[in-house]
Amino acid sequence: AAKVPAWRCGVSSPGSLEMTDASFEAGGLGNAASAHTAQVWPSPSSREARPPLALARADRVARSLLRAIPEGAPRFLVAGGLASLFNWLVRFPLSDILPFELAVGVAYAFGMGVGFALYRSWVFPGSTLPLPTQASRFIAVNTAGVGVVMISAKLLVVAVESSALLPISTAEGVAHAFAIVLGAVLNFLGHRALTFARGAAASRSAASG
């Protein structure tokens, strides 16, 4: 490499040293340093164009989960949550005058009325089945559901009480809440397939009775 003359270094003062572009390129270092910098430090635009691998994988997983959610499920969760909350809250005053198992059943009946109105108008609109058929099937599906809720609530409250970890009233509330969740899952499947069926499914359902 050519020797850089001292006068090309451009010493402006004893405390500062400024090297000109000509003196830097004279040693053949300019292009090499630029190439090395380009390899080690990608430009801001390239870093922004390529998201991190973990973020891309999380996005793919989220999209897969959204595609896996059945149609109507989000609205069913909201409507069912409101009906279940009403169901759960009503049970407490009913337990003051009724045995626990019967209070659960009566509270479930109140929740049924709220649920039918919300499901028919908001969750499963457009069903071609007549209203009487919808009502009768809604009662049938929920009657099966109330049996599941009552039996599972009783089994759960016995299990929680036997552990002696919670007071009786708290154990009943926890057991009832878990039983309501189980009943809600079964209700969604039954109402989508039977109570509020649409199109060809409704025709087959009506023909079968």
Q: What does this entry look like structurally?
A:
The protein is mainly alpha-helical and 209 residues long. 74% of the residues lie in helices and 0% in strands. It has 9 helices and no strands. Helix 7 (131-163) packs antiparallel against helix 8 (168-195). The termini are far apart. The model is unreliable at 9-19 (pLDDT under 50).
In short:
With 209 residues, the chain is an all-alpha fold.
Element order: H for helix, E for strand: HHHHHHHHH
Portion in strands: under 5%
Number of strands: 0
Oligomer: single chain
Structural class category? mainly alpha
Largest sheet: none
Shape: flat
The DSSP helix count reads 9
What is the CA-CA span between the terminal residues? 96 Å
Q: State Rg.
A: 35 Å
Helix content: over 70%
**Which whole number gives the mean pLDDT?**
75
Can you tell me the residue ranges where pLDDT is under 50 for at least 5 consecutive residues? Answer: 9-19
Structure keywords:
mainly alpha
Question: How are the SSEs placed, and which strands pair?
Answer:
Elements: H1 21-26, H2 30-40, H3 44-49, H4 53-68, H5 73-94, H6 100-123, H7 131-163, H8 168-195, H9 199-207
